[in-house]
Design brief:
about 425 residues, Glucose Permease (Domain IIA), eight-stranded antiparallel sheet, three-stranded antiparallel sheet, 16 strands, L-tryptophan decarboxylase PsiD-like domain-containing protein, decarboxylase, PS_Dcarbxylase
């Protein structure tokens, strides 16, 4: 894979690929955050002989006992380019230099809730793996099923902490807190918009996960045209990524053009055949907003499927290849790619309008815990705006998939990068 570096790189420049507010657009902020964590990790390495969390020891054993995995975890750090901006520490090396430091950092992260860092939101594991994800060896490591099983096991430990009262220490108005003046500016009108109790400690939230999966207050997102079955509504509070028509059963989803591959997206479910040649709407969720899913149509739940997948695999053509973006591309530019490989949930809905018929909602985890929780079951009746499920902490994107005979017409009001509110009308079918 060719590596393109630019000698005039401005380390304070905004990085366009961090479009989901999941990582700082100013890379210098990420370096500063990571430097503090590295200092703590190196101190821990000096003062203790073992990891605090046994699952990190298991991760080390997996790497060191499997020659293929061991080679990939060595090479992913060696393959990071040695020129700016990738050599971000004073010695001229990447900040995270090997898997030993990586694991020590993981050990710290598992007992921390994400804070609102210097006007930024940071996905901690993504920050640690930011450069290695863009390497060929990183790709090999992060598509390995055993590595992903270990990430899943590690995230179960982290999720337990994020669901505990101890995780509320970031739900304060202190610097770094989610109710600080800086956070309140980033999430305006929080108390009026979301269900909470501003007079209670931690605004009444029981844990970090409770805060992350917070609900809108009644009426905050009214359902547009709730009884018009020719109108399809937005399933998430999100930003449009792309739309596509004539989607193929199989396509080269790993290419830079990012075509969709229906059979893989839908995990080769027998129902996928009905969607060949159909249409897709894809939009991603900001770290700062709402993470529950709502039904886009009136209808009945036909089937739900949770698909295990990768956590940190990004498209192999996206790493270190952009002349205009001198940074590893993270996952925002791999959003179509990860619909075929990442952990995700499928919800098939039979719309009441026969001209829509069967459609599918796909929730895709993009990193970190990446839990896609489905809260409906086959046979349930749903109306527009009824909850389908939610993302727990992690980057996320979603798709609505329609059959070719649906003849769906997406609204021109929502070009790529446009914000779309939950329950807004986004598409129609001919009456």
């Amino acid at each position: 894979m060719p590596h393109h570096e630019r000698g005039n790189y401005n380390r304070h420049a905004h990085v366009h690929h961090r479009v989901g507010e999941w990582m700082p657009k100013n890379h210098a902020d990420l370096e500063s955050w990571l430097a503090k964590k590295i200092k703590a990790a190196e101190h821990n390495q000096r003062t203790q002989e073992s990891y605090k969390h046994p699952v990190i020891g298991e991760f080390r054993d997996l790497i060191e006992n499997d020659p293929e995995i061991c080679m990939a975890f060595h090479q992913m750090f060696e393959e990071v380019p040695s020129k700016p901006p990738y050599n971000n520490d004073p010695s001229g090396k990447p900040q995270v230099r090997d898997y030993h430091l990586m694991l020590s950092l993981f050990d710290i992260i598992l007992e921390e809730a994400p804070s609102f860092e210097e006007n930024n939101v940071i996905l901690p594991i993504n920050a640690i793996l930011d450069w290695p994800m863009g390497t060929p060896a990183g790709y090999r490591a992060f598509v390995n099923p055993r590595v992903n099983e270990m990430f899943h096991k590690m995230f179960n430990v982290w999720a337990k902490f994020l669901s505990s009262p101890e995780s509320r220490n970031v739900l304060t108005n202190e610097p770094g807190g989610w109710f600080s003046p800086a956070a309140s500016e980033a999430i305006p009108n929080f108390e009026e918009t979301f269900e909470c109790d501003p007079s209670a400690p931690y605004h009444g939230f029981k844990c970090w996960d409770d805060f992350f999966t917070r609900r809108f207050r009644p009426g905050a997102r009214p359902i547009e045209l709730p009884d018009d079955d020719s109108v399809i509504n937005s399933a998430c509070e999100s930003k449009v990524y792309k739309t596509a028509h004539g989607v193929k059963k199989h396509d080269a989803f790993w290419l830079k053009s990012e075509p969709y591959s229906l059979a893989y997206m839908l995990n080769n479910d027998p129902l996928h055949e009905q969607f060949i040649g159909g249409s897709i709407w894809q939009a991603f969720l900001s770290a700062l907003k709402y993470h529950r899913w709502a039904s886009p149509v009136n209808g009945k739940i036909v089937k739900t499927v949770n698909v295990p997948g990768t956590f940190y695999a990004e498209s192999p053509v996206m790493g270190f290849t952009s002349e205009s973006e001198p940074s590893a591309s993270a996952m925002n530019h791999s959003q179509s790619f990860i619909t075929s490989v990442a952990a995700r949930a499928l919800i098939f809905i039979e719309a009441d309008n026969p001209k829509i018929g069967l459609m599918c909602f796909v929730g895709v985890g993009m990193g970190e815990v990446s839990t896609c929780e489905v809260t409906v079951k086959p046979g349930d009746r749903v109306k527009k705006g009824d909850q389908l499920g939610m993302f727990h902490f992690g980057g996320s994107t979603h798709c609505l998939i329609f059959r070719p005979e649906t003849n769906v017409q997406f609204s021109g009001d929502f070009p790529p990068q446009t914000d779309v509110k939950l329950n807004q009308a986004i598409a129609t079918v001919p009456k």
